[in-house]
Amino acid sequence: MFAGSTEYGGPDDPEEPLRPLNWNLLSSEEAESEWLDLNAWVDWLRTTYGLPPTVIPPFWHRHDELVWELSALHLHWLNSYDPDGSPSAPLMWHRDFADARHRLREWVATCGTRLEKDRATRQTSWPGEDPQPPAAEVVIEDRGADFIEFVVEDIAARRRIEERVRASLAG
Hints:
171 residues, mainly alpha, globular
């Protein structure tokens, strides 16, 4: 699930109907499942199509703009290759995939992530806002370990929010 795979079998629960995915509203349990599935699919996509890190960098998971784009592309792929779907849907997916690759290149160039290094996406301060501090570039030696750590932190943050909500409802 974390290392290069040339196979992708789809989400763990293929009986669930496809729905738009809003990362901002996922529970910790939903997020864990979605992160793992998206990671497996992105790995399959990059190896199947031979995509360079200028299209899909190793640290895509650390950049919201890449997560949203790849997640939407993943859902589109799942829908296009659904056994009950239209026979022409895969052709539409490939046309949209060509458009998405252009956007992904733009996102990667903007955010500044590279093959072995990453930095937070630069934010432009608007007039009246405090200037944003420059983002430091960090070397990440193990992409798989970084992904696991990232997902564990994301799930923990979601659980803290869920606990606060439960406490406020009980209080």
